[in-house]
Write a structure and sequence with these properties.
Elements (H helix, E strand, L loop, with lengths): L7 E9 L5 H11 L3 E13 L2 E7 L2 H14 L4 E4 L5 H13 L6 E3 L16 H9 L5 E2 L3 H8 L8 H12 L2 E4 L8 E8 L2 E8 L9 H14 L4 H17 L2 E4 L2 E3 L12 E4 L1
Parallel strand pairs: 1-2, 1-4, 4-5, 5-6, 6-7
Antiparallel strand pairs: 2-3, 7-8, 8-9, 9-12, 10-11
């Protein structure tokens, strides 16, 4: 009896020993949304919900060989990147992407700093991402601090749409500018999709942990793209997924918390409006 073909997502990211972010969060998001997850690990981190104590990067050649092994035998429907750590790894990933006969959608979460504030990037990573990887992407998902580092000025609700347009031009692709770092009762993300701008809004959840939300969101978007959803539909469902994870935060230690499973994903918690 033939098995049903499952949509597959490949995550190229770092491993979080605490299980809250990185590869571990990506695999949980893929599974929750009905996709099979494959991995190419870029770094092994020693961390927990409170911080990162050590980072052990994987050689770029080994990251490339992981990608090649996966794509050589598995029908990857979408690729998501997280912590890439170094320019060498970015160059190696670009080479592997260019080897593919048919390149799947690529979602880039430009991970530079952990939620705890610990640096997760080395050498000229940001510049290399912009010059080489983001032009190959379907969607890039910077948060406010990451976006500010690219455009070179502070972003607030008044200039957020202008910053989004500038980001789309500089990154050479669609952009989801995440507004979670802005002080508001509403979590508003702005999506640039082929020249159209959408505001994606949800209520801010007063959760005990937000560690791994960026990873989960980008992975959930990749899952939607692997299943054939449009960018707007994938972003909407992914935002609802993260909302559910925040509502279901769990305790994993005396003073440690983590995102829970999203449960039933309620699309009505997200309001999407073209502006």
């Amino acid at each position: 009896m033939a098995a049903a073909m499952s949509p597959v997502c490949l995550t190229v990211a770092g491993s979080d020993s605490g299980g809250g972010a990185g590869i571990q969060a990506d695999l949980k998001a893929f599974s929750a949304l009905g996709c099979f997850g494959a991995t190419a690990i870029t770094a092994v981190t020693s961390q927990n919900p409170h911080g990162v104590t050590a980072i052990h990067p994987v050689p770029a050649t080994d990251v490339a060989s992981q990608c090649r092994a996966v794509c050589g035998a598995i029908s990857v429907g979408a690729i998501k990147t997280g912590m890439l750590y170094s320019a060498d790894i970015v160059h190696a990933l670009c080479t592997e992407l260019d080897r593919l006969e048919s390149r799947p959608p690529l979602v880039i979460d430009p991970v530079l700093v952990a939620t705890s504030g610990d640096a997760l990037a080395h050498d000229a990573l940001a510049e290399c991402l912009i010059a080489h990887l983001t032009p190959r992407a379907t969607l890039v998902t910077p948060n406010i601090p990451e976006a500010e580092a690219i455009v070179g000025y502070s972003i607030d609700p008044a200039n957020m749409q202008d910053a989004l347009e500038e980001l789309a031009g500089r990154l050479g692709t669609d952009v989801l500018l995440k507004g979670g770092h802005l002080d508001s009762d509403t979590a508003t993300d702005l999506l640039w999709n082929n020249g159209r701008v959408f505001a994606c809004r949800s209520r801010v959840v007063d959760a005990l942990s937000t560690h791994g939300t960026g990873c989960t969101l980008a992975a959930a978007i990749a899952a939607g793209l692997a299943q054939g959803q449009s960018v707007v539909a994938a972003v909407t469902r992914a935002k609802a997924c993260v909302y559910g994870c925040l509502e279901n935060t769990i305790q994993i230690g005396p003073a440690s918390y983590a995102l829970g499973a999203p449960g039933t994903i309620d699309l009505s918690v997200v309001d999407v409006e073209e502006i």
